Amino acid sequence: AEVYELPDTAEFKAEILERYPPKLAKKRAKQIIINKIENDDDVPEILANTRTIPGIITMRGCAYAGCKGVVLGPTRDILQITHGPIGCGFYSWLTRRNQTKPTTESDVNYMTYAMSTDLQEEEIIFGGEKKLRAAIDEAVALFHPRAIGIFATCPVGLIGDDVHAVARAMEEKYPDINIFGFSCEGYKGVSQSAGHHVANNKVFTDVVGLNDTFSKPGKFKFNILGEYNIGGDAFEIERIVADCGLSLHSTFSGNSTYDEFSSAHTVDLNVVMCHRSINYLAEMMEKKYGIPWFKVNFVGAEATSKSLRKIAQFYEDADLLKKTEEVIERELVEVEKVRLDVKSRCEGKTAVLYVGGSRAHHYQELLREIGITILSAGYEFAHRDDYEGRKVMPSIIVDADSRNIEELKVEADAVRYKPRLSEEKKASMEADGFAFSDYNGLMTEMPESSLVIDDCNHYELEELLDRYHPDLVCAGIKEKYVVQKRGIPMKQLHSYDYMGPFAGYKGAINFYKEIDRLLNCSAFKFTKAPWDESPELSATYAFN
Ligand code: CFM
Ligand code: HCA
After folding, report:
1. Which CA distances in Å does 326 have to 21, 197, 219, 251?
2. Number of helices followed by number of strands (H, E) in the chain
3. Is 164 marked active-site?
4. Measured from the CA of 92, which atom of ligand 2 is nearest?
5. Any ligand 1 atom below 6 A from CB of 276
6. Each residue of 237-247: pLDDT tens digit?
7. Which of 164, 194, 239, 338 is most buried, judging by how many CB atoms fall within 10 Å of its CB?
8. Residue 226 to residues 134, 246, 527, Cα–Cα distance (Å)
9. Cα(228) to centroid(ligand 1), Å
């Protein structure tokens, strides 16, 4: 890893903690970590995936967001009904910028609708199941969908509506429609992360495996798990893998359809892009259907090439390997031209990143490619394995908010689903150096003495900006204007600020150019924060 000694990190940490009440300080002390990489990628332990202390301005979202917005949201022909007050459905209405492209076989697209039961006080008092049944009747009459997902919000859980009972009853009424509910009340767990898990479990039990016949042309069939087509990322990945000669069956869930999900068990391989949101499904599909999986990363030009090579190596096919190398060589010509040009203007600049559960790590690759140093980074809701890497890898299936795969009783059906790779074959591939569990965490790849901050809050972010003056901040919409008003360019790594794709080769080019524009735009230097001009606007913290 790169060596960059961020100065006075211990003092900085102590100053932050000093101003917190003792209990909070004790907790945050375990979540603000000064990075240190010892032998064999051993990094310090970090506290993650725990409750945010109430009153803190967190960057996190809720379980409903993780389930409905993140995992199910990007699939176009599962009709999705938010059971709750209208705000939840409204605020998750395409704000994530997950895109889709209906095809001639499947021209249905419900994604542009925000469907909700719009609960009112009356239902909060007397129950909302009747209104949910009516909403399903109405949706069926209007659209006659193949599948309907129902998403529970906080008040629904509090009043005790049973979305699963409603789903079962309505499925009896409409036997040709697959209707399933998600107990993804916002308060479940501590963040979006619990919602991912709820979504994975239900998609696995109620959708995957239902269709043995749907298939796509081509050899080398595989699924990409954890790619959500934000700003068109999946379109770019689809382009590249098709050029290599691979047959992408289903993306969970960017640019996807119900047929692709229900037949996803028919492929040879799953690759996992965002491990945090979908590792559960990869594990369960391996267990039940014998489909091997490994991690890939299509963010960053080098990472993309590495991932393509690994997929090609998995199939052990000479033509595929040759074609893959040709695609890499062809694509890198333009990438390198732009990269070197941009690097000449960005080299030596610094950045901090606080994003979700995998991008704070993935995007470091792209920034490093243009010579930018990462001073600090952290996730909103990742777990320890996402930070510390393979050291804590086994925890992924028995973590805090999991009903683990044993409980789901996914006994392998050895007759119908023969493992794609025999134990012996897998072992011999591993002996030859093929790493199925090649898994690095964010900390193992960050500079020595950089600051790793879990569930970073607005107070800490502002202190950090004052102290270390990074040239660039990467985070989400809640952070954007606080940062830009200070005259620091800010790039949203969730929605990409109306741009994209940023994945794959064309994505890398888009990203380099955008960061170049941001870092070398003089407008930011003329910005004066409103609270500097009118001191009465500056925040006074309760614990001052
Ligand atoms: Fe995975 Fe995501 Fe992320 Fe995520 Fe998210 Fe997202 Fe994210 Mo926003 S699934 S963990 S829950 S890569 S929505 S596409 S950008 S926080 S880093
Ligand atoms: C979510 C979705 C989100 C929010 C982005 C942001 C996304 O977690 O509810 O805070 O800017 O990517 O759209 O992560």
Report:
1. 59, 38, 18, 24
2. 21, 14
3. no
4. 9
5. yes
6. 999 999 999 99
7. 194
8. 33, 18, 38
9. 8
